């Protein structure tokens, strides 16, 4: 199990030393550094962002303890965290949860830091448990020898451990189903190439890296049996925000009669939002498109657009795999019921 630590002086996230393309961040003592890590995507992937933000609120409480302006400072820290990335709802879910925890601790006269730290540990442990449960539920959808297409990284590196989409693949492999994977490279930051391919290869799960624009041709040749992606926000009607390019993959899957599955914990469901039309899509630094590994790849003076996510309409989603089980259309009948289910 890949640990997420929170020790005396530091928030230790993941062992990134094996990831040459990512900066090695082993410890944080300041919640502002955690904000930077989320903005710059040292920490990325919806569930991992949520878990990390939970620890960051605890860091803020430790820093501001005993100050007369404690309440204002904590409010600012929570607002700073919420301002880091707009699309992944897990971030807001975790910060809201920590705010409720803080309020309860103060009302009960408990130490805020101790309470927030315990709640962050609980969020982290729940994320791991949810990924395992999703894996078990989703593995039943895959068959012996299936080849699965993934998009972006929805693996252990995007969660506290195990992964959402990759959790399903891992669970199916653990059940002896001999799954192999085509991983989209996922331009512009190549999470599929750097992270998904890295994780699966390390686990001994056969993985083949393809460029984003090969997906349709792979499907057309009968090389893909199922698509599984993660999600950054799912609305009440089953619309799904995920890494840019996911929508195109869903259209291609539909055209080719291939099931398109989404694996996400219920912390990724926005129970307040009716449809994907209302999801705020993050627009990132345009230069990410015009550069590759620090090298400029486009002529001077060119304009870029760099939407980080898109929305796949629920009509293209064959099933949504959650820790509470597999949902099928019509999602609007099933998703709202999950809100208060234990
Ligand atoms: C379990 S991760 C699900 C999603 O967060 C993942 O597919 C994704 O789109 C990540 O985007 P990123 O921009 O790398 O944070």
Q: What's the arrangement of secondary structure elements?
A:
Blueprint: E1 5-7, E2 10-12, H1 31-39, H2 46-64, H3 70-82, H4 89-107, H5 112-139, E3 147-150, H6 165-174, E4 180-184, H7 191-203, E5 207-210, H8 215-220, E6 226-229, E7 233-234, E8 240-243, H9 246-255, E9 260-263, H10 287-290, E10 291-292, E11 295-296, E12 309-312, E13 319-322, E14 325-327, H11 331-338
Helix pairs in contact: 1-2, 2-3, 2-4, 2-5, 4-5, 5-6
Bound molecules: 5-S-methyl-1-O-phosphono-5-thio-D-ribulose (MRU).
Protein name: Methylthioribose-1-phosphate isomerase
Pathway: Amino-acid biosynthesis; L-methionine biosynthesis via salvage pathway; L-methionine from S-methyl-5-thio-alpha-D-ribose 1-phosphate: step 1/6
Organism: Pseudoramibacter alactolyticus ATCC 23263
Protein architecture, described:
- This protein is an alpha/beta fold and 342 residues long.
- It has 2 domains: 4-130, translation initiation factor eif-2b, domain 1 (Four Helix Bundle (Hemerythrin (Met), subunit A), Up-down Bundle), CATH 1.20.120; 137-339, Translation initiation factor eif-2b, domain 2 (Rossmann fold).
- It is built from 11 helices and 14 strands.
- A 7-stranded mixed beta sheet has the order 5-4-3-6-9-13-14, sandwiched between helices. It has a 3-stranded antiparallel beta sheet with strand order 7-8-12, with helices on one face. The chain has a two-stranded antiparallel sheet with strand order 1-2.
- The longest helix is centred in the middle third of the chain and has 28 residues, at 112-139.
- It starts with a strand and ends with a helix.
- The relative contact order is 0.12.
- 5-S-methyl-1-O-phosphono-5-thio-D-ribulose is lined by residues 41, 44-47, 88, 152, 154, 158-159, 164, 191, 230-232, 242-243, 308.
- Its EC number is 5.3.1.23.
- Catalyzes the interconversion of methylthioribose-1-phosphate (MTR-1-P) into methylthioribulose-1-phosphate (MTRu-1-P).
- GO terms for molecular function: S-methyl-5-thioribose-1-phosphate isomerase activity.
- Pfam families: IF-2B.
């Amino acid at each position: 199990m890949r640990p997420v630590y929170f020790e005396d002086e530091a928030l230790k996230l993941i062992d990134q030393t094996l990831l040459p393309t990512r900066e090695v961040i082993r410890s944080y003592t300041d919640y502002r550094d955690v904000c930077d890590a989320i903005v710059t995507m040292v920490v990325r992937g919806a569930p991992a962002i949520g878990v990390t933000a939970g620890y960051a609120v605890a860091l803020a409480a430790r820093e501001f303890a005993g100050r007369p302006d404690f309440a204002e400072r904590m409010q600012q820290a929570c607002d700073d965290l919420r301002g880091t990335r707009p699309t992944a709802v897990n971030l807001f879910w975790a910060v809201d949860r920590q705010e409720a925890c803080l309020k309860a601790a103060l009302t009960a006269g408990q130490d805020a830091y101790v309470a927030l730290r315990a709640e962050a540990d609980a969020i982290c442990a729940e994320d791991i448990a949810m990924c395992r449960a999703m894996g078990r539920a989703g593995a039943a959808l895959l068959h012996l020898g299936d080849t699965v297409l993934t998009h972006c990284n929805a693996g252990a590196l995007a969660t506290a451990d195990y992964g959402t989409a990759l959790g399903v693949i891992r669970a199916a492999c653990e059940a002896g189903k001999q799954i192999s994977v085509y991983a989209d490279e996922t331009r512009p930051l190549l999470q599929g190439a750097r992270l998904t391919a890295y994780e699966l290869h390390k686990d001994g799960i056969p993985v083949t890296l393809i460029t984003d624009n090969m997906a349709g041709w792979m499907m057309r040749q009968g090389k893909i049996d199922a698509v599984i992606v993660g999600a950054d926000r799912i609305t009440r009607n089953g619309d799904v925000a995920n890494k840019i390019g996911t929508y195109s993959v869903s259209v291609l899957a539909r055209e080719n009669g291939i099931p398109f599955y989404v694996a996400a914990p219920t912390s990724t469901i926005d129970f307040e939002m009716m449809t994907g039309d209302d999801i705020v899509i993050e627009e990132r630094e345009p230069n990410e498109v015009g550069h590759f590994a620090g090298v400029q790849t486009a002529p001077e003076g060119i304009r870029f657009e760099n939407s980080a996510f898109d929305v796949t309409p629920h009509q293209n989603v064959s099933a949504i795999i959650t820790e509470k089980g597999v949902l099928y259309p019509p999602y609007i009948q099933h998703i709202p019921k999950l809100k208060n289910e234990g």
